[in-house]
Amino acid sequence: MIARGRIREWFIGAGRFAVLLFFSVALAFPFYWMVLTTFKQGGDLYNLNNNPFIFNMKPTLEHLHVLFRETMYLRWVGNTALVGVIVVFITLLLSLPAAYSLARLTGRWGERLGIAMFLTYLVPPTLLFIPLSRIVANLGLQDTIWALVFVYPSFTIPFSTWLLMGFFKSIPRELEDAAMVDGLTRFGAFVRLVVPISLSGILTVVIFTFTLVTQEFVYALTFIAPESRQMVGVGVPTFLIRGDVYFWGELMAACLITSLPIALLYNMFLDRFIAGFTVGAIK
Amino acid sequence: MTSSPAVAQRPHGHRSTPESRAWWLGQAMFFPAMIYVLAVIGLPFALAVIYAFSDIKVGSVGYHFVGFENFSSILRSATFLRALYDSFVFTIGSQVLVLVGSTILALALEKKFRGRGVVRFLMLLPWVAPVSIGAIGWKWILDSLYSVINWVLIRIPFLHLDRFNPPQWLGEPALAMASVILVHTWRLLPFSTVILLAGLGAIPKDIPEAAEIDGAGFWRKMFQITIPMLRPILNVALLFGIVFTFTDMTVVYILTRGGPYDTTQVVPSLAFFTGVLGGDLSEGAAISLFMVPILVVVAFLMLRQAHRSEVT
Amino acid sequence: MAVVETRGLTKVFKQGELGAVNNVNLLTQEGEFLVFLGPSGSGKTTLLRMIAGLETPTAGEILIGGQDVTHLSPRERRIAMVFQSYALYPHLSVYNNIAFPLKAQNVPKEQHKQKVEWAAGLLGIGKLLHRKPRELSGGERQRVALARAIVREPTVFLLDEPLSNLDAKLRASAREELEEFHDRIKTTTIYVTHDQVEAMALGDRVVVLHQGVVRQIGTPREVYDEPADTFVATFLGSPPMNLLEADGVIVGFRPERFLPAETKLAAQGGSRFPLRFHVQHSEYLGAERILYGILEGTRFRDKPVCARVSSNVLEIYAPKTTYDFAVPEPELKFFDAQTGKRIPPRPFSWQ
User: Does A101 sit within 8 Å of B30, measured CB to CB?
Assistant: First the structure.
């Protein structure tokens, strides 16, 4: 009897280990491959007889050189950062008051509005890009990053509002009541009390808005054609290709450098992000 | 009792009560965001519907109402029907894999162990990296000539693969569809896993313990207690997954451009090629509208789920 | 049915730290209702969870019905447990909750219905079988948890603070039901609580735990009237026993034995010790009054003590007034001042 329990435990442990190993490898493999490819010489990459898992020739920084010196990669990163910052700003400006209103001021009706707001997050770019491309053209924004600055808040605002609403609801009402008894107006209490208290929540929203912007592909592909105006997510997979020749070394280097910082940031704020997605479904 | 009506009524009386002020403030704080979202989502959506009933092209002027002509021509088009079929294969295939895979992975990740943070970071990468970038990574791995997968397969003796004619992952219809599905599964798996982990964390520790004392073994505990209790959150993960998959064109666009011979073309990518690249706005809009019923159903199911968990 | 025995049972959660449970030796009697009583952090729940098999002991053995079960999984121990939260399976109906142990133990399917109905009948929840746990009141949930526990006729019953989730009024009636229930099934039961009233009311014997160590095992009367050390003396009883220290000895007496000098009880049997009691304030609790104050005269001048006076005593006892009180000699308990352990009565000078 004693042995049986032990053996079962051992099997469960071994099974867990195997599952984790399999998934870690399967999920992280492309990134490992990016690292390898980035530092391999072209002659090593494009030789079918070479073992692709090892360095058959000396590692090289050449792809990185080319990427930074001879392509517009840095330009795309700059464009993305600029769009990201402006969109974060617009998003906070609009979603902070909206979230507070939904959390505190509009009662039962507010709950429905909140859900409606969240559902708009489900509306995909692929449903709207055709009419939007026309609107963008009519506004004279085509082929500029302002087209994206205009459109991106349409999905960052709903998501941020929903996340912030959760944060605001977790602040005890008594705090604002106390502030109002002490002489602040309700809006004053919001600006001088609720917003400072929610700084960590706001930081979360900033990070997610920013990552949403970097991850977007469809709108950027639709609205912007010139190479120099691209976002990094579109520029890398479309302009590091000449004709149908893929510059895999440069491509993978770009992929690696783009993904890692975003991944690290995202990972730090993951738990808050999950909380936003699962509100209502777990209790 | 005399003062209560002033509190209870919709506050638009003459006297400015704290309630009425709060109500007005609420409206004022909410509406800017709502107007923005409505302008950038509601207006284009209405335009999409208007376009779908017209013959508008890029550069054309004026508006001609053509009724259901676009829809009937789409429904007669083999390309569209194929895309619709592919969309379902793509969605169902990847969602089944995501659901099974993420449940297994979440259960394995639930218990704390050394290095859990590292594993979690590694497994999150596909979701966190921009889609287009992850997909281009796969395009290299599945390359027609230098695919590392083929390099390995050729060296497995009992497979007897022809080393000069290895599988063309993105060049043969069935393989291309399988590749697209797998890459999308790869991307969505972390998202679903993370949501399920949150669900697992919310199950009170007592309950699996009680099951153990009641005599349940590993499998019974998993299939009769843990997984049924995860149901609501599994539903949420699935519904998000369906939306993210059925409306996604990035993976297809980067890996295959819908090829070979439109065998991996899905509804959103077809809408893109027709409406944006092809300039046929009306037909593109009509094609993309075919995603709406799916979205409506998902939204409805989500609301029901949210309502149910509220009751619990 | 079976007895439970622990030998030198110890649990250390973090190496180098004091154990949550230290060297506990226990032996229940057949069909006994044994209560583990202690403040939070005393290790009572850890002890119970080790007996259940949910926690692996660091050292020691557990025997159920004479068989060593230390390394068996919970499912192999043939025990039942009622959790503090009841741990009902939220997605299963009451019927399926009760039937779950039967399924898990591979009891033939034909017997399920009859057994579930027997257990439900025993607890009077026959009408709730189709409901889901969330549709039940707190008291009903407790009964479902009990029915789920008895349905497979376990050898031992473990209950972890099952009443703590009920409101005060319901708790009294639930306690009565539990007593009745135990009288009917007569299965060895171990019950964990931090509530001394529950422990005294329910237990055949009470195990008093503190910092992972058993301080005393005895009937409710024994642990209350003959406490083994100063911890037991002050943990049981509310307000706690009055303790006065002098000459390396602690002398203790219960507030309800600290009586107005003229009452008969104070005068009964042998000598008594008169004390001047300066009342500072009093609490009126209906059936009794609690008087807080300090002693006057003697060597214990200004030491705080309290007295519990029944409502039969008509005297008012105004604050800031001194009264004559007394303690009967047999009610004095002596403890070693160093160890806190109980010692035999000895001559004691009040002056």
Answer: yes
Q: CA A206 to CA A88: how far, in whole Å?
A: 6
pLDDT (0 to 100) of residue C290 = 92
A12 touches chain C (CB under 8 A): no
ipTM of the shown complex: 0.86
C126-138 pLDDT, tens digit per residue, is 899 999 998 998 8
Give the dihedral sign, CA C179/C185/C187/C192: negative
Chosen for mutation from C73, C78, C91 (greatest number of chain A CBs closer than 10 Å) is C73
Helices B69-76 + B281-289 axis angle, to 10: 70
C74 touches chain B (CB under 8 A): yes
The pLDDT of A217-229, averaged and rounded, is: 89
Tell me the average pLDDT of chain B: 84
Paired strand residues for C308: C290
pLDDT band at A265 (very low <50, low <70, confident <90, very high): confident
Q: Touching A: which chains, 3+ CB pairs < 8 A? A: B, C
Q: How far is B119 from chain C (nearest CA, A)?
A: 25
Does residue B293 have a cis bond before it (omega within 30 degrees)?
Answer: no
Task: Give the residue carrying structure tokens 């469809």.
Answer: A218
Nearest by CB to residue C87, choosing from B204, B215, B217, is B204
Instruction: Give pLDDT, residue C116.
Output: 93
pLDDT digits (tens, 9 = 90+) for C254-273: 999 888 887 766 556 667 78
The tokens of C240 are what? 């706690």
pLDDT band at A177 (very low <50, low <70, confident <90, very high): confident
Mean pLDDT (whole number) for C44-64: 91
Chain A residues in contact with C91 (beta carbon < 8 A) = none
Residues 6+ apart with CB under 8 A from A19: B104, B105, B108
- C-alpha closest to that of A90 among A12, A149, A170: A149
Are the C-beta atoms of A151 and A136 separated by less than 8 Å? yes
Environment class of residue B5 by beta-carbon count within 10 Å: exposed (0-12), middle (13-18) or buried (19+)? exposed
Which residues in chain A touch residue B148, judged by CB atoms under 8 angstroms apart? 33, 52-53
- Do the beta carbons of residue A83 and residue A148 sit within 8 Å? yes
Distance from the Cα of A89 to chain B's closest Cα (Å) equals 13
The token pair that represents C30 in the structure block: 């057949």
Q: Does B175 touch chain C (CB under 8 A)?
A: no
Contact B137 A119 (CB under 8 A): no
Query: Chains near C, with 3+ CB pairs < 8 A?
Result: A, B
Contacts of A4 (CB under 8 A, 6+ apart): none
User: Considering only B72-86, B145-159, B255-269, B275-289, which range has the smallest mean pLDDT?
Assistant: B145-159
Joined tokens for residue B272: 């893109």
Does the pLDDT of residue B7 top 70, yes or no? no
Chain C contact for B209, CB < 8 A? yes
- CB neighbour list of residue C276: distance below 8 Å, 6 or more residues apart: C295, C296, C297, C298, C322, C323, C324, C325
Classified as helix, coil or strand, A34 is: helix
Asked if residue B309 has pLDDT above 90, the reply is: no
| Cβ contact A135–B235 (<8 Å) | no
- C156-160 and C188-193 strand pairing: parallel
CA nearest neighbour of B41 among C299, A119, A281, C152: A119
Whether residue A172 lies within 8 A of chain C, CB to CB, comes out as: no
Model confidence pLDDT, tens digit, residues B185-242: 999 999 899 889 888 988 888 999 999 899 888 889 999 999 999 988 888 889 889 9
Instruction: Please give the pLDDT value at position C267.
Output: 54
Burial C98-112 (b: 16+ CB within 10 A, else e): bbbbbbbeebeeeeb
Question: Does B312 sit within 8 Å of C83, measured CB to CB?
Answer: no
Nearest to B106 by CA among B182, B189, B218, B221: B189
